[in-house]
């Protein structure tokens, strides 16, 4: 059957070598283009982004250019036109093609090592389920340890508890300071933690290491930490590089981990959603690595298992050729994009820190296309909920999208925390991103918005007491359920929320529910629950009373 | 919402406030044949597409609604995530709850497909074995004609964790529900032998290959009588194809794909979990922020993905509301038509139906002339490919292996070992089945045998 149209476009461009070839080879150097993509063309490629919004949060959900979306639509239409033909003739070869391109991008040794999955969260579930079986089947002993960083992504922490702790593993966190001043601080803490495990007679079965932590965002020296793991006799290393590809250089052979995952929809312009999971060595090396959604290919190796997990839309996994074509329109290709993003975000970060009288959360060499910038202490960010409220306020009132990290102030006896130029402790950091569609004005708007809040005397603490004044006008009510896990949850009250800081509950439309958005105590939430049960129609959200 | 009217309800896609009509708005007139053709104009018009059962179908208006949701996300994903996603998912779940007559919307989770739902239920059983709630050797029962992927899932989770897997042998062709009930009872006895407990029965509502409608309500009742702990109905094909009333059926877990017979885009399914103590132990295998908050919420966020196929249920309801009799009307007409076409083919080929009409839904099995000599699953695949490539007819073929000593049904002198599974959905026309009829006649007239067809 005919190849999809993106292949024809490639050959029309006279790109004889490189992407689009059936052998999956990717040019190691960017092909010279008639002219690199222009600013106007970039704007057009991202014209579906809301132009009113200063979108300085590429890190949470990524972005996808129009030409790649068009390629995806063509794949979708191909499937819908004749799905059986697509399934039998097109799907697997096209997935193989995408995997081949990823292999080149990450310098994997064999195609068998590269699987495509939905996202890094799925990749984590695959790894941790494998570990759980090892405990259940006795390959690991109860109490053997799995090590993770304190700033591991919240969902990954949940997954470690759901699989590893539940199966009898002992979970150990590496404490990490923030702000950071050098990678040595990370290395020191990591060594110390492994040393503690060794001293306690615990075998460390798996180390879970972020390549780029999410919140707060820093680049972790994964190659060095992986080497330390080998020295210390850690069985396996899993690098959670959710943000990495398109953001930092990824060379899986050089890093040397057993498992490495990264999302392609964050910084590599794929539509939602697709990630790769690299597993060192062929499937024979890790026969018990399985996709949790078991289908016809079970037992044929993870790449094939992941290539069919029931009837679904696989098109996000099929557009990698179109993405490579897009990336090569930029000067320097992906490396050029990364470099310019990094330079620009550091420049903008410094601009903001200087303007606000604050600081960067880490030195530039520990940042990538994202950087943490301290917010003025007078904003009074005193909890994750405050951080979320401020984020919502910036979105609703200023149309600025930026996630905010809450850094708890040092406890008594600890070293003093970072302060701003007025001497106030900095407890909030904005995580700014820079991607090809960003312009300086986005960051100027953020700068000015924060200045305005400071001038107006805004404080998160004050807004809690006053209730509604500065709250989001469209903010969804926070349901008690998402704060209080029932069975099997990790049991913490202040759990890490969604990407950045996120909670979710169906809108109810009742004005006092906005008060609920500020509730941070169990008593508030119990009171809301009693009210909910007492109303004849519930809260009109359909859960009770119908 | 009043069940009687739910088929005629019409909702706007993308309505974020979750309001829905209590009574149907009278439609100006039923959708016309020309409008149906337009809704499915994206199908390959040269193909006789009589395999809705495998991949389903999705009308243009629902695809447009899906696109709208996708663009909303792309436009401002953070705002979408915080303000629109969960209300949109909730709206879809609430509509599904009414369609299937669940008692509570908390019992309804949306997942990718029935394969994912099976993994959820079976992983739960796996933990039960691993943690000692079930004893090693306790049994899980499934039908012989359970879907291949589900069988693998049962082995991957249950057998691996120490469970004993038992298959209920089922005859095919089948002539009555009693044959199925009998075999099921026999197998349950076997399952309970030597003091073993049967922890889970996995029962298809509509088997895939060969396709027959299983009397799930009766089998579930038998399970309760016989002390089976839990019943999981794998109804991948059911919704939009047979009536689904989960309270009436009474199973603990029930799943069905919405993209097969319910006009959703790929892919979305619901997993119904009867409220009881076990329901809080079910987890989505992809663990994320909502872990521990109940399966519906867990499934509502499993990392960044495209959730748009789960958000279009209101648009689907609107589409269905344009048909006379709503979903019930569609089901009835599909069933009548597929039986009529099945009989036409069986008569034209001198063969027979694989089950009586009352044991089929919108799909039916029709015996292929024995002279085609379908002698294995590979032959069935080859013949299917041949029909696709040479005749542009898309129809899956089932191979029924002869059992030792069993005399197979014959058409004249040859054993019937191959069956086509024909589907009928709203876009099908009689011409589709005539083309299949004539293609097979063509092959027979040319003296084709399957071993003459080269593999692809």
Automatic annotation (TrEMBL), chain A:
Swiss-Prot/TrEMBL keywords: Pyridoxal phosphate
InterPro entries referenced in this protein's UniProt entry, alphabetically: Aminotrans_V_dom, PyrdxlP-dep_Trfase, PyrdxlP-dep_Trfase_major
Keyword Amino-acid biosynthesis: no
Native organism: Musa balbisiana
SUPFAM superfamilies for the chain: PLP-dependent transferases
The protein, known as: Aminotransferase class V domain-containing protein
Pfam families assigned: Aminotran_5
Gene3D superfamilies the record matches: Type I PLP-dependent aspartate aminotransferase-like (Major domain) (3.40.640.10)
Ranges where the record places region Disordered: 1-34
Biased composition (Basic and acidic residues): 1-11
Domain Aminotransferase class V, first and last residues per copy: 96-279
PANTHER family: HERCYNYLCYSTEINE SULFOXIDE LYASE, L-CYSTEINE DESULFHYDRASE
Keyword S-adenosyl-L-methionine appears in the UniProt entry: no
Automatic annotation (TrEMBL), chain B:
Region (Disordered): 1-28
Domain Aminotransferase class V: residue ranges: 92-275
Signal peptide boundaries: none
Keyword NADP among record annotations: no
Pfam families for this protein: Aminotran_5
Disulfide bond listed as a keyword: no
InterPro entries for this protein: Aminotrans_V_dom, PyrdxlP-dep_Trfase, PyrdxlP-dep_Trfase_major
Keyword vocabulary terms for this entry: Pyridoxal phosphate
Record-given protein name: Aminotransferase class V domain-containing protein
């Amino acid at each position: 059957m005919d190849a999809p149209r993106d292949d024809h476009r490639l050959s029309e461009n006279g790109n004889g070598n490189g992407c689009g070839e059936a052998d999956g080879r990717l040019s190691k150097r960017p092909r010279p283009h008639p002219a690199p993509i222009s600013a106007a063309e970039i704007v057009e490629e991202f014209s579906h982004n809301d132009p009113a919004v200063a979108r300085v949060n590429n890190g949470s959900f990524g972005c996808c250019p129009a030409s790649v979306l068009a390629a995806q639509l063509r794949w979708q239409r191909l499937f819908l036109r004749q799905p059986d033909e697509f399934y039998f003739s097109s799907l697997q070869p096209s997935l193989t093609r995408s995997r081949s391109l990823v292999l080149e991008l990450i310098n994997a040794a064999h195609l068998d090592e590269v699987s495509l999955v939905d996202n890094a969260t799925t990749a984590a579930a695959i790894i941790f389920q494998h570990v759980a079986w090892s405990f259940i089947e006795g390959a690991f002993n109860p109490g053997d340890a799995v090590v993770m960083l304190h700033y591991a992504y919240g969902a990954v922490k949940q997954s470690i508890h759901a699989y590893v702790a539940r199966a009898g593993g002992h979970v150990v966190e590496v404490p990490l300071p923030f702000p950071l001043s050098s990678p040595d601080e990370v290395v020191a803490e990591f060594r110390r933690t492994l040393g503690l495990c060794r001293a306690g007679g615990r075998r460390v079965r798996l180390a879970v290491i972020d390549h780029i932590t999410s919140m707060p965002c820093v680049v972790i020296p994964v190659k060095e930490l992986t080497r330390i793991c080998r020295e210390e006799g850690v069985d396996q290393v899993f690098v959670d590089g959710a943000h990495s590809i398109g953001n930092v250089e990824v060379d899986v052979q050089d890093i040397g981990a057993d498992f490495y995952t990264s999302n392609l929809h964050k910084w590599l312009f794929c539509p939602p959603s697709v990630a790769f999971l690299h597993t060192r060595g062929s499937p024979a090396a890790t026969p018990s690595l399985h996709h949790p959604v078991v289908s016809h290919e079970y037992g044929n190796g993870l790449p094939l298992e992941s290539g069919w997990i029931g009837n679904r839309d696989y098109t996000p996994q099929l557009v990698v050729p179109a993405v490579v074509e897009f990336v090569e329109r930029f000067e320097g290709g992906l490396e050029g994009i990364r470099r310019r993003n990094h330079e620009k975000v550091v420049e903008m970060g410094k601009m903001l820190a200087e303007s606000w009288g604050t600081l960067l959360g880490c030195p530039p060499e520990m940042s990538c296309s994202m950087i943490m910038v301290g917010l003025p202490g007078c904003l009074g960010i005193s909890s994750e909920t405050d951080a979320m409220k401020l984020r919502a306020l910036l979105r609703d009132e200023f149309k600025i999208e930026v996630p905010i990290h809450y850094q708890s102030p040092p406890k008594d006896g600890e070293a003093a925390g970072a302060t701003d130029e007025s001497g106030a402790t900095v407890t909030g950091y904005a995580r700014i991103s820079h991607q090809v569609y960003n312009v300086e004005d986005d960051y100027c708007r953020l700068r000015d918005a924060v200045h305005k809040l400071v001038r107006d005397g805004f404080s998160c603490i004050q807004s809690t007491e006053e209730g509604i004044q500065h709250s989001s006008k469209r903010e969804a009510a926070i349901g008690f359920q998402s704060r209080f896990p029932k069975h099997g949850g990790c049991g913490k009250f202040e759990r890490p929320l969604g990407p950045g800081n996120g909670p979710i509950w169906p809108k109810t439309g009742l004005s006092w529910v906005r008060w609920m958005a500020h509730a941070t105590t169990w008593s508030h939430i119990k009171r809301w629950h009693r009210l909910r049960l007492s109303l004849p129609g519930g809260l009109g959200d359909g859960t009770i009373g119908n | 919402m009043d069940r009687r009217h739910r088929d005629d309800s019409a909702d706007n896609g993308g309505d974020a406030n979750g309001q829905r009509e209590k009574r149907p708005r009278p439609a100006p007139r039923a959708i016309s044949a020309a409008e149906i053709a337009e809704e499915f104009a994206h199908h390959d018009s040269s193909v006789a597409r009589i395999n809705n059962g495998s991949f389903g179908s999705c009308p243009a208006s629902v695809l447009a609604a899906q696109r709208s949701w996708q663009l909303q996300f792309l436009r401002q994903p953070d705002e979408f995530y915080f303000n629109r996603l969960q209300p949109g998912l909730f709206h879809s779940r609430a509509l599904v709850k009414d369609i299937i007559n669940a008692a509570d919307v908390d019992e309804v989770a949306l997942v990718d497909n029935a394969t994912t739902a099976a993994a959820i239920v079976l992983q739960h059983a796996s933990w039960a074995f691993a943690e000692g709630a079930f004893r090693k050797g306790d049994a899980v029962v499934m039908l012989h004609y359970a879907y291949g992927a589900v069988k693998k899932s049962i082995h991957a989770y249950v057998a691996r964790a120490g469970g004993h897997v038992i298959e209920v042998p089922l005859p095919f062709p089948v002539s009555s529900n009693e044959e199925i009930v009998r075999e099921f009872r026999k197998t349950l006895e076997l399952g309970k032998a030597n003091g073993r407990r049967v922890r889970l029965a996995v029962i298809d509502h509509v088997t895939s290959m060969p396709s027959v409608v299983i009397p799930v309500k009766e089998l579930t009742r038998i399970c309760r009588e016989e002390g089976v702990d839990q019943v999981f109905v794998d109804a991948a094909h059911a919704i939009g194809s047979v009536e689904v009333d989960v309270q009436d059926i009474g199973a603990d877990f029930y799943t069905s794909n919405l993209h097969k017979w319910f006009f959703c885009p790929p892919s979305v399914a619901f997993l119904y979990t009867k409220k009881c103590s076990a329901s809080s132990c079910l987890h989505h295998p992809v663990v994320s922020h909502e872990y521990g908050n109940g399966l519906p919420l867990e499934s509502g966020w499993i990392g960044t993905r495209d959730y748009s196929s789960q958000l279009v249920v209101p648009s689907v309801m609107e589409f269905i509301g344009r048909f006379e009799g709503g979903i019930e009307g569609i089901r009835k007409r599909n069933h009548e038509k597929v039986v009529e076409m099945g009989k036409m083919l069986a008569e034209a080929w001198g063969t027979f139906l694989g089950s009586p009409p009352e044991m089929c839904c919108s799909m039916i099995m029709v015996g292929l002339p024995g002279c085609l000599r379908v002698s294995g699953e590979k032959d069935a695949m080859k013949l299917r490919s041949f029909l696709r490539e040479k005749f542009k007819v898309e129809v899956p073929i089932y191979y029924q292996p002869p059992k030792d000593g069993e005399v197979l049904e014959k058409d004249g002198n040859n054993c019937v070992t191959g069956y086509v599974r024909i589907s009928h959905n709203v876009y099908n026309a009689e011409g589709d089945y005539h083309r299949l009829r004539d293609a097979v006649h063509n092959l027979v007239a040319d003296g084709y045998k399957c071993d003459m067809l080269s593999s692809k």
